[in-house]
Structure formats: structure tokens, C-alpha cells
Amino acid sequence: MGKGMRAGKKPKKQGAGGGNMQQQMAQMQAMQREMDKVQAEIDEMEASATAGGGAVTVTVSGKKEIKDLQIKPEVCDPDDVEMLQDLVIAAVNEALRQMEEISQAEMSKFTSGLGIPGL
Asked: Which terminus, N or C, of the chain has the lesser number of Cβ atoms within 10 Å?
């Protein structure tokens, strides 16, 4: 037996695992492309929410931008502007919450199996 070798052990090959690293990088790149595709789909989605029994309706995009705001004329009381403001805020916040939930659900399909904290 050669110096430093024990019976039953094979000598280590130089560069072992190099192909594995390339395979992992290719998998990560493919996953990144798929995540980008899903993010583009999310950006095109919309979520709507109402407040005040339908008095105010807000629609937001996947980019979390307000796309539409509908206010029924009967809630436009000049003596109670604060109520209208509260209804708009409530509807906007709910629509944004819904879109965040949709976005997280879609993206978690990729990140759940990675074991990366915080994702």
C-alpha cells in the first residue's frame, strides 16, 4: 500500500463535487427564472376590497398600486369627511393585505423547500 492509504479506501479525486456545484447553480438559475415569471404574473393580478358595506371599493394591482377607487355618492357627506377618509383607508389596507397574502402564497411555492430562514 502507498503512503497514507488504508485498506478499503479509494484515493480522493481532485475536483470532486465541481460538477455538483455547476448542477446546483443551474438549478438555482432555473428557479430564479421561474420566480421571475411568477412575480410577473403576480404583478398582473388584482385584488379588491370594500368598506362600509360596499360604500367604498378599492382595487390594487400585484405591484401594490391602487388601480381603481369607487365611492358611492351617498357616503359623500360634507359634514362627515372623516368617515369617508376612514372608509377609504380601511378598503385600501384590506386590498393591500389581500394582495400581500396572494403574493406570499405564490412565492412560497419556491422558497418553502429551500430551508432559508426568513423566506
From this structure: N
